[in-house]
Specification:
six-stranded mixed beta sheet
Amino acid sequence: MQGSEPDNGGSAARSTRIHVVSDVHGNTEALARAGDGADALICLGDLVLFLDYADHSRGIFPDLFGKENADRIVALRTARRYDEAHAFGRELWAGRDRNTEILGAVRKQYAELFAAFPTPTYATYGNVDVPGLWPEYARPGTTVLDGERVEIGGRVFGFVGGGLKTPMNTPYEISDEEYAAKVEALGPVDVLCSHIPPEVPELTYDTVARRFERGSTALLEAIRATRPRYALFGHVHQPLVRRMRIGTTECVNVGHFASTGKPWALTW
């Protein structure tokens, strides 16, 4: 997958190539190669693998509680029986130090994942990430942005991290108002980068999970008002539509990197 724009500067002009990934979910091996041939790597979050819905033996949850319990929690969540899933989780955690055990496992994953980032990398948080830990692992050459802008190859990129509140209660979910404030702080940009998609049904519906994920109306409004060249995002692993235009803006789900191992490329 890639996007490109015509070169109006003549054949001698040097093009810029950016690779974009999202939903890494522990795929350290592919992440280490994701920047090959690119001027920079952009990561749109969800580095952590808490539970692999395709392989219930992988992730922090089965490491702590075993595959059978992972099978059960996935079944409850998939059936949208969230209250039962929360009750089951409380039962499993009874008598254990939840924060200490989870943060220890997340730290182990972050140590490997951040070491795999090439230089330069520009990254923002996903909804399953723990922002408070990122300063411990982000090395020189990795720039973390959230509600902030950066210029790459003459283009202005704006970054908005995290997700919105859901019954899943993942680590970095924030209110609609807080999220909208970060979007507004960006102002006009050439490329709008976020973890979650704009609130468009075709972009938020997961065809395998058979449910709508939460998208952002603030992102959709910013796209319509400021008309960036591209809006790039992830979050929805198997979207109904991976790419569509909103006005003049090309909206692209850059893909579920954990399963594909392939970055999306943008050149100009």
